[in-house]
Amino acid sequence: MALFGKNKAANGTATTSRKTHVGNGRNFHLGTWLRLHGFDIITMVLAGVAGLGIYFAPPAYDHYFPIRFQDGEVIMPSIAVPMQKDLVPIWAAAFVAFFVPFVFFVLFQIRLRSMEHVFTSTMGLLKSLITAALFQVVIKCLIGGPRPHFLVVCKPQIPNGLVGSGYQELYFTRSVCTGDKKEINDAVESLPSGHSTAAFAGFVFLALYFNAQLKLLSAHNPAYWKILLFFAPILAAMLIALAMVMDGFHHWWDVTVGGLIGTACAFVAFRTTFASIWDFRFNHVLLPRTSSLFLRNKGGDANGMGIPSFGYVAGESGQWPVTRDGGWGDRQEVSGGAPFDASMTGGAGAGAGGLFGGSRNNGATANHNVNPSAMHHGDASRAV
Asked: Which residue stretches does the UniProt record annotate as biased composition, category Polar residues (predicted)?
C-alpha cells in the first residue's frame, strides 16, 4: 500500500496520509464506492449477459446473395475469397482492449496515488467496452451481411427446379447452403466488425486518457514522446481492425462502422467519467457521484469532495494530472482555457472573460488578476 499511502502537496513537500486516503485530497472508502457504483456494475453485468445471448443467437435477417451468372461466372468475388485463420482472435482483441489501458491506469498511480482513480477509470473503460459490444452484436444479429469468405463456408448447391429471385433470378438465401450451419450463421454477420469495435472502444479511451493526464493538447508545447504515446493506442486499434480485412473476415466498411461505434462509446464513457474531453484544465478530473440506488446522500459527494457536482472552478477538485510539465501542481500554469465543453460553463473561475478570455490557474486557486505584460514575456506566474 506504500504506492497509495503518500501524496505530495502542491508546494512540493511530502505528506503521509491514511491508507484510505486518495491522492489529490479525496478520501476513498471501498464500501462507499461499491454502494455508489454497485447498480452500474449490476447493469453492466446484465448488459454483458444480454450481449452474449445475442451473440450466440441465430441471424435475424436472411440476406440475398448472387451466386453465378448463367455462363458460370462468379457474380460477387468479394464474398468468395479463401477462408483463412483469423490473425487476431476476438477474445484477444477484447483482452488487449481492456488490459493495456488498465495497466496504464495502475502505472500512473506512481504519481497519482489514488485508488479511486484506478477503480473509477476502470469503470469508465468497461462502460465503453460493454456498451460498444452490446451495440455491435445487436447490429450483427439484426442487420449483418455476408463475410468475404461467405461462399466458401456456404458451399451453395441449387436444387433442380429452384428459381432464384431478382435480376435474372440469380439471388438466393442461405437456404441453398450445404456447409456447417454454425459457420454459415457466423458468415452472414460481417457488419460491424466486433474486433474493430472492441479495439477502438478501449484504445480511443486510452488515447483520451493519455491526452488528459499528460496534457498533450494544452497551454504548453509538450515533449514529442507524448505525441507518439497518444497515437500509439489509435495505431493499435487500426492494426487490429485492418488485420480483419487482410485475413478475409471483414470488408473495409465493416471495420469502419465498428471503429465509429467504438470511438463514439469511448468518447461518451470518458466524458461521463471525467469532467471534460478536450478542455485541458479539467479533463483529468474525476466527476463526483453523490448517490445511487444503494446510497442516498443528499448533502454532497460521499467520497469526501463535499460537493454534489463539479463546478468547473480552477482548483476546486484538488486533483492533479500525472504530468508536472507546464506548471501543473505548482500553481504556475495559467491559461484562458480551450474553446470546448467545459469552457462554456458559467461557473466562477471557469467562464470569466467569455470563451477565450479570463485567466485560469491550474493550481489550487484561480487567479483573475494576471499582469498582461508578465504573460506577454512568458511569465504567467506573476500576478498583480
From this structure: 359-372
- Report the alpha-carbon distance of residue 277 to residue 284 in Å, rounded: 9
Contact in structure between 37 and 292 (CB atoms under 8 Å) = yes
Query: Under a CB-based contact definition with an 8 Å cutoff, are residues 23 and 113 in contact?
Result: yes
- Full residue range of the structural domain in which residue 171 is found: 2-273
Residue 47 in any domain: the answer is: yes
Number of domains observed in the structure of the chain? 1
pTM above 0.70, yes or no: yes
Please check whether residue 71 lies inside any domain of the structure: yes
Quote the CA–CA distance of 279 and 337 in Å, as a whole number: 7
β-bridge mates for residue 274, sequence order: 286
Residue 120 lies in a domain: yes
Read off the pLDDT of residues 223-252 as tens digits, 9 standing for 90 and up: 999 999 999 999 999 999 999 999 889 999
One-letter amino acid for residue 143 of the chain: I
Work out the pLDDT band at 342, boundaries 50, 70, 90.
low
